[in-house]
Amino acid sequence: RGLDRAGVEAWLAQREGKEATVGGSTGVPTHFVVIQELLGAGSAAQTLTVRSVRDGEEVSCEGEDEAQHVPLDTDVLPTSSPPRPLAELRLALLRLCRALHVTELVCKVCTVGQRYLVVEAQLQLDEAASYLCGAKWGTCRFPAPFGRLELPEEAAIHELDSRTGASLKFTLLNRKGRVWTLIAGGGASVVYTDTICEYGFAKELANYGEYSGDPPGDFVY
C-alpha cells in the first residue's frame, strides 16, 4: 500500500513465479491485481455491499446499523432509504447484480459534488448461472481454484468450451471414483451432484461434468 509504479514493479518481481500460501492453499500465483488509489489524501469513501441471501438481497453501507433486505419479488428499496442519489445508486447496483447473477458486490463510493462515484469494485459471480447469462459475462472464465493445477483432461474440455457458444464443463475430482456424470444442463448438473453427495456418495464422485446450449455432437461424444 502506498507504493509508486517502481515500488509495485519491485514488489511483483520479488514474488512472480514463486510459491505462496493463501488461506491454507499453496500454489504459484499467475495473476496479480494492482489497485490504483484514486482518492486524494483526506478523501473518504464508503463501502457499499450487495449480497445475495436465500430469499433476496441485502444492501448495506458502511456506517449504517442495519442492512436493507430486498425480497426476490420486488426491486424496490425500503422506504427508509438514504438520500436520493445514493438510493438510486443502490437500486442500480441491485438490478445489475440480479441481471448478471452476482452473488456479492463490494464497492467503494465517494461523493463528487451531488453525485456518487464508484472508485473500486469487487464481485463474485454464480458460475452455475452461466447457462442463463453467460453471454452477458462475455469472455469471463472461471480458473481452477488457487493451489490446484488444471489437469490435462480439464484443459482439453476448456479448449473445446472456448470454441463453441454452448457450455462444456469438466472437473476431475477423484480418478478412482465409481460415480461419473455427464448431465445435460448446468442447473441440472448441480442438482444431480448435490443429490449424489446427499445420498452419501461424495467420496465416490469422480467428476463434475455438464453440457448445455446444444454443443456440436463431435464435441460431446
For the structure shown, list the relevant keywords.
alpha+beta, 27% strand, 6 helices, globular, 221 residues
Characterize the structure shown.
This protein has helices at 5-15, 84-100, 130-137, 152-161, 186-198, 217-220, and strands at residues 20-22, 25-27, 46-53, 56-61, 68-71, 102-112, 115-125, 167-172, 183-184, 207-212. It is an alpha+beta fold. The mean pLDDT is 85.
Sequence-ordered SSE layout with sheet pairings:
Layout: H1 5-15, E1 20-22, E2 25-27, E3 46-53, E4 56-61, E5 68-71, H2 84-100, E6 102-112, E7 115-125, H3 130-137, H4 152-161, E8 167-172, E9 183-184, H5 186-198, E10 207-212, H6 217-220
Parallel strand pairs: 9-10
Antiparallel strand pairs: 1-2, 3-4, 3-6, 4-5, 6-7, 8-10
Judged by helices, strands and strand pairing, the structural class is alpha+beta
Spatial separation of the terminal alpha carbons: 51 Å
Q: The biggest beta sheet, please?
A: 5 strands, antiparallel
Taken as a percent bin, the fraction of beta residues is 25-35%
Q: What ranges have pLDDT less than 50 throughout 5 or more consecutive residues? A: none
Mean pLDDT: 85
- Shape category: globular
The neighbouring-strand order within the major sheet is 5-4-3-6-7
Order of helices and strands: HEEEEEHEEHHEEHEH
In short:
This protein has 221 residues and is of the alpha+beta class.
